[in-house]
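re: the backbone from monday

yeah here it is again, tokenized this time
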């Protein structure tokens, strides 16, 4: 057991139980927090963790009558209400300590990248991910760290579905479960045209944009054109903040109108924020489909700053120093965090036969799979990390 998991002293003050640990850390747990955390069979369902506690029935004078560490280093508390007794494992308490420093340790810290400090893009093979949970775990970690992962040897017929099953489930939309991106005689979106596609996140007009998007090269353009572009949206926000903190502030505050129209079939319209921050003020998600933006419906005084901010974003999206350029090979699939990493592509010849398959995966199914795998493989540290994209 790692140092820090053994309590060496337990005490109380007026509102909290205080634990001193073997690594010198001190945790304070408010009585109400501890009482609420009890998951004995009276307070909840120990096997699946849901709660039965009725908070409004707990007096706000809740406090321990007695407390001690038993010989398994569990904290045992007898409460002054209902003659109830609770038992907490010390490891659980330490992992849930909500002190500033422990919450800081659990924070998500993505590794930002640009065109000169590249993410690790060494590809995984689909087979190695299917047969080895250790490799799958490595892939999850890399996706979490950089927001982009390349997978090769993905079969043409149902490779998108097979990849999705590693992380969760395919999300069905008005474009189906899996959609084909190739030149179409009657284009429904920019993706159906051979022209260059500016960097973007997918489906910014949805209330919940897909957490992850997959692009699978069934057939790259035979003329060698149509290379894919990728850009770290978190790095973009970092640079934008350096240039203009006001622009970041505005784009986290003023909703933008994102739209997508298929006349007579679908008419999506969303008032959403372009940049989302976590409670500590760090970027946790971006919605950067600039081709889906309609003129804003906002306070008059925000209109001009809005366009100034948007122009800055547009310049960064087009800044070549931020992006990586990579031509997908046959059978290669790129999996990107769609609330972080933008993708686009260079122009290609319409006769080049370029065919990409696209599918989406929701963010929560990935988080859930990763927690299950973390627990199974014994990586408890990651199990409690605070994830991005949480709303
Ligand atoms: Fe796209
Ligand atoms: Zn209980």
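seq for it, each position gets an aa:
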């Amino acid at each position: 057991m790692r140092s820090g998991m053994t309590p060496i002293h337990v005490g109380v003050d007026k509102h909290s139980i205080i634990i001193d640990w073997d690594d010198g850390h001190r945790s304070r747990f408010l009585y109400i927090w501890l009482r609420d955390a009890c998951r004995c069979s009276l307070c909840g369902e120990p096997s699946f963790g849901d709660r039965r506690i009725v908070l409004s029935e707990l007096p706000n004078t809740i406090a321990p009558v007695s407390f001690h560490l038993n010989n398994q280093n569990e904290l045992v508390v007898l409460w002054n209400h209902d003659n109830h007794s609770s038992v907490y494992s010390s490891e659980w308490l330490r992992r849930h300590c909500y002190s500033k420093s422990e919450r800081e340790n659990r924070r998500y810290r993505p590794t930002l990248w640009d065109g000169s400090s590249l993410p690790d893009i060494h590809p995984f093979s689909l087979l190695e991910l299917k047969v080895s949970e250790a490799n799958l775990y490595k892939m999850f970690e890399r996706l979490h760290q950089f927001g982009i992962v390349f997978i090769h040897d993905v079969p043409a017929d149902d490779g998108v579905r097979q990849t999705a099953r590693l992380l969760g489930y395919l999300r069905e939309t008005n474009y189906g479960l899996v959609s084909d991106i190739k030149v179409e005689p009657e284009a429904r979106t920019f993706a159906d045209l051979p022209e260059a596609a500016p960097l973007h996140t997918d489906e910014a007009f949805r209330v919940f944009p897909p957490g992850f998007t997959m692009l699978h090269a069934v057939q790259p353009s035979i003329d060698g054109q149509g290379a894919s572009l990728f850009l770290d949206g978190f790095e973009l926000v970092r640079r934008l903040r350096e240039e203009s903190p006001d622009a970041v502030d505005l784009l986290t505050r003023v909703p933008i109108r994102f739209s997508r129209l298929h006349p007579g079939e679908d008419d999506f319209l969303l008032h959403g924020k372009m940049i989302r921050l976590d409670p500590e003020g760090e970027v946790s998600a971006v919605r950067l489909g600039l081709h889906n933006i309609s003129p804003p419906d906002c306070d008059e005084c925000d209109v001009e700053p809005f366009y100034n901010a948007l122009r800055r974003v547009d310049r960064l999206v087009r800044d070549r120093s931020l992006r990586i350029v990579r031509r997908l090979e046959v059978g290669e699939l790129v999996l990107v965090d769609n609330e972080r990493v933008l993708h686009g592509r260079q122009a290609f010849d319409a006769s080049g036969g370029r065919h990409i398959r696209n599918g989406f995966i929701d963010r929560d199914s990935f988080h859930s799979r990763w927690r299950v795998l973390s627990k199974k493989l014994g990586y408890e540290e990651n199990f409690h990390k605070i994830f991005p994209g949480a709303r």
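Residues 124-383 form a domain with the Double-stranded beta-helix fold (CATH 3.60.130.10). The pocket of zinc ion (ligand 2) is lined by residues 38, 40, 42-43, 84, 86 (CB under 6 Å).
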